[in-house]
Amino acid sequence: MKITEYRSLCETAFKHGRRVMGVGPAGIGKTEGAVEAARGLGMDFIGLCSALEDPSSIRGYPSRGENGEATHCLFDGISRAFKATRPTVLFFDDLGMASESTMRAIMRLVQFGEIDNRKLPDCVVIGAASNDVGQGAGITGMIDPLKSRFHAIVNVETNVNDVIIYGLAHGWPGDMLAYLKNEPEALHDSKPTRDMQVSGSCPRGWGYAAEWINAGVEDKEVLGGCVGK
Asked: How far apart are the first and last CA of the chain?
């Protein structure tokens, strides 16, 4: 699925309360597509970095409820989602990087919008994005019970025409866009490595390069640090 098609799918999913997850290489715009889809619908967006979450940050810390019964005190993005009064997207970014215990902790939240019998407001819809196994993101897989709780998991890929349209709308330099149009293979040639160097390009890196050029910096080493040699 092209990135523009994914954004359109996100708009439909968010509008109708469907849970969708986009899977694809890093830097192709999966999260940005979801953010823009939410923005286009006038929805608030709460993004959680799943790699940094643990079961306690999902369920909250144990606390004493108003009636004296034990419950959990929610915080950060989860707390804001449960207090939402406007249409809101609760988005689990980099979901495949979460630990298995964290994945287990969010299963009921994803499917039923519940934590300790507290329900997410009807105005909140859940979405997610992730790299796939073997794409250099340290992902070893996802448990099947969590996968089956999404209404759809779709593969997302980059496309030079979509990126050029995005670049035109965001002020990327014209000569850069012309280069990508003439050399489409240069858009995404990243090869994941463990080295402390940028090993190749991706749309996110071209966006960074555009920002440097617009700021008056055209040093080859700097631009190579965005999209590789």
From this structure: 28
What pLDDT score was predicted for residue 140? Answer: 75
| CA-wise closest residue to 79 among 97, 95, 100, 57 | 57
pTM reported for the whole predicted model: 0.86
Q: Side by side, which strands form the sheet with 20-23?
A: 44-49, 88-93, 124-130, 20-23, 152-155
DSSP secondary structure letter of residue 68: S
Q: Cβ distance 57 to 185 under 8 Å?
A: no
**What does the pLDDT look like over 122-177, one tens digit per residue?**
999 999 999 887 665 567 788 999 999 999 999 999 889 999 999 999 999 999 99
Helices 174-182 and 160-169 sit at what angle, rounded to 10 degrees? 170
Please list, residue by residue across 81-112, b when 16 or more beta carbons sit within 10 angstroms of its beta carbon and e when fewer do: bbebeebbbbbbbbbbbbeeebbebbeebbee
Rounded Cα gap, residues 51 and 206, in angstroms? 25
